């Protein structure tokens, strides 16, 4: 049963609430906020409790009412103010309060309507927060309208700032940025499209998007995006390949690539066996017999390796991360004969062509801030009502097939994975992300699994794992103990002459 305690801690708080409700009611009668979409969401609880909650929190700069007043971020307030003063001219600085702050106070119901969470602060504080953070963001993005600057790849400075700009709860709605630019005279009052602002947003997304964004010509003159994160999401999801969409890679036989090294199973057991073999070579005829028996056991171990038998306990289960059920890249390639190719398109161009046994994937560039971007993009897709989990299904697919360094290495060799992250960091990135899509249905995954588990070698492998592995572990232990007893007996007989005991018994 829920608590019946009131939400107010004092009479003063209750009276403050009454005054705010009275004032908001009067204002919202004058200002129509029904057409103002909620655009800045809280991180869904199903994601905020994941392995990396810091990915959903700004580390240096708090933008907007959700994080502006956090004590650990407030030390950047002076930096924000200094940046804004350099952004405004002298006339705009003098009239800052009388013009901009007053205008934001007038549209205060609109500001509140943009945020999903109730904002427990007065109009003056809210107007100042939006003004300071909005102008700081505009100044930060100003350089992205300079095409030459973007192409020069000099955007590495302030990487943490750019990372914080893409956090879900750190977004500033476009509708407020446009209003601020109009109020300050940066754009004409009747300019609803604000092409310059769109150009800055597009430049940022093109520079930082982990997946290739759609061509900016498709978004020219369109201002239906809600904020920076929303635009990057739309650019990623709506990017489609132009025909021909797919690049066909040569097959393994064509390229004459050597097969990947097979995993060495029962590693600890093999190390012990090697030591026993070396010792047995020095123990005469009985020792050589024991060595022969051990080598027979090792031969069976090699057979189990060829079949692909793996110890289940060798799989890293340190983090309880839920992933979709699909074999890894290495298993798909080695046991399923599936090839991997990159496509010029985006996530909507992911395709498994069964006739070619080829999985086509878009190129993804993974750098230091890529995990934060992917997590917040998926969180936004999850939070925005009515959106289909297209990006989440793609991320789930990548998390499912990339398990080890070898998986990341193979996709990098195929040109699917690029960026500054090494193969270990790529594997850690995808292994650390929970299953994102609420729906369990994924057509691509189902097609891959159906194809893979129909392969004869996979059926044999699964039979060995399910039927033989359970007894193989016990047999391995018993064989080792038996061989050790034989060695002990041989050593005893060499020292105490077992023949004497046998003669006496006779």
Number of strands: 5
Distance between the termini: 85 Å
- Averaging pLDDT over every residue, what do you get? 77
Question: Unreliable segments (pLDDT under 50, ≥5 consecutive)?
Answer: 150-156, 244-273, 296-319
The helix-strand sequence is: HHHHHHHHHHHHHHHHEEEEHHHEHHHH
Structural class: mainly alpha
Helix content: 40-55%
Structural topology:
Blueprint: H1 11-30, H2 45-48, H3 77-87, H4 90-94, H5 96-106, H6 108-114, H7 123-142, H8 147-151, H9 159-165, H10 174-183, H11 195-208, H12 228-237, H13 252-255, H14 267-280, H15 284-307, H16 329-334, E1 339-343, E2 351-353, E3 358-362, E4 364-365, H17 370-383, H18 390-401, H19 405-413, E5 417-418, H20 423-431, H21 443-452, H22 456-496, H23 498-505
Parallel strand pairs: 1-3, 4-5
Antiparallel strand pairs: 2-3
Description:
This protein is mainly alpha-helical and 506 residues long. The chain is 54% helix and 3% strand. It is built from 23 helices and five strands. Strands 1-3-2 form a three-stranded mixed beta sheet, with helices on one face. Strands 4-5 form a two-stranded parallel sheet. α17 packs across α18. The radius of gyration is 32 Å and the shape is elongated. The N and C termini lie far apart (85 Å). Mean pLDDT is 77; it is low at 150-156, 244-273 and 296-319.
């Amino acid at each position: 049963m829920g608590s019946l305690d009131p939400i107010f801690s004092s009479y003063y708080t209750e009276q403050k609430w009454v005054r705010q409700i009275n004032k908001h009611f009067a204002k919202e009668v004058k200002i129509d906020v029904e057409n103002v979409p909620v655009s800045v969401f809280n991180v869904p609880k199903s994601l905020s409790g994941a392995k990396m909650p810091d990915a959903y929190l700004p580390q240096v700069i708090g933008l907007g009412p959700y994080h502006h007043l956090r004590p650990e971020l407030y030390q950047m307030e002076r930096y924000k103010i200094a940046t804004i003063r350099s952004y405004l001219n002298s006339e705009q600085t003098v009239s800052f309060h009388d013009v901009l702050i007053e205008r934001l106070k007038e549209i205060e119901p609109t500001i509140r309507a943009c945020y999903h969470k109730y904002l427990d602060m007065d109009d003056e504080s809210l107007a100042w927060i939006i003004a300071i953070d909005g102008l700081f963001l505009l100044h930060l993005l100003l350089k992205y309208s300079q095409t030459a600057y973007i192409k020069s790849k000099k955007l590495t400075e302030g990487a943490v700032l750019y990372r914080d700009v893409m956090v879900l709860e750190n977004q500033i709605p476009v509708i407020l940025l446009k209003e601020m630019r109009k109020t300050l005279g940066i754009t004409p009052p009747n300019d609803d499209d604000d092409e310059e602002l769109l150009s800055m947003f597009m430049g940022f997304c093109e520079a930082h998007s982990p997946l290739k964004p759609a061509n900016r010509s498709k978004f020219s003159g369109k201002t239906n995006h809600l904020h920076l994160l929303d635009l990057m999401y739309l650019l990623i999801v709506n990017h489609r390949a132009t025909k021909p969409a797919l690049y066909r890679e040569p097959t393994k036989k064509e390229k004459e690539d050597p097969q990947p090294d097979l995993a060495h199973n029962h590693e600890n057991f093999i190390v012990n066996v090697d030591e026993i073999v070396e010792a047995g070579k020095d123990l005469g005829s009985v020792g050589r017999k024991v060595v022969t028996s051990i080598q027979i056991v090792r031969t069976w171990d090699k057979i189990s390796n060829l079949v692909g038998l793996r110890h289940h306990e060798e799989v890293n289960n340190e983090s309880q991360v839920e992933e979709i059920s699909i074999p890894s890249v290495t298993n798909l390639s080695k046991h399923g004969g599936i090839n991997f190719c990159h496509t010029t398109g985006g996530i909507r161009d992911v395709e498994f062509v069964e006739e070619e046994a080829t999985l086509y994937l878009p190129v993804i560039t993974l750098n230091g801030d890529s995990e934060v971007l992917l997590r917040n993009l998926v969180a936004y897709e999850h939070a925005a009502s009515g959106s289909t989990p297209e990006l989440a299904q793609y991320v789930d697919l990548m998390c499912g097939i990339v398990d080890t360094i070898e998986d990341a290495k193979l996709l990098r060799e195929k040109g699917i994975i690029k960026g500054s992250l090494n193969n270990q960091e790529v594997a850690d990135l995808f292994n650390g992300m929970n299953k994102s899509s609420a729906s369990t249905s994924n057509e691509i995954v189902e097609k891959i699994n159906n194809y893979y588990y129909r392969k004869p070698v996979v059926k044999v492998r699964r039979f060995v794992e399910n039927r033989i592995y359970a007894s193989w572990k016990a047999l391995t232990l018993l064989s080792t103990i038996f061989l050790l007893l034989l060695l002990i007996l041989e050593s005893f007989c060499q020292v105490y002459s077992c023949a004497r005991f046998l003669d006496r018994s006779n």
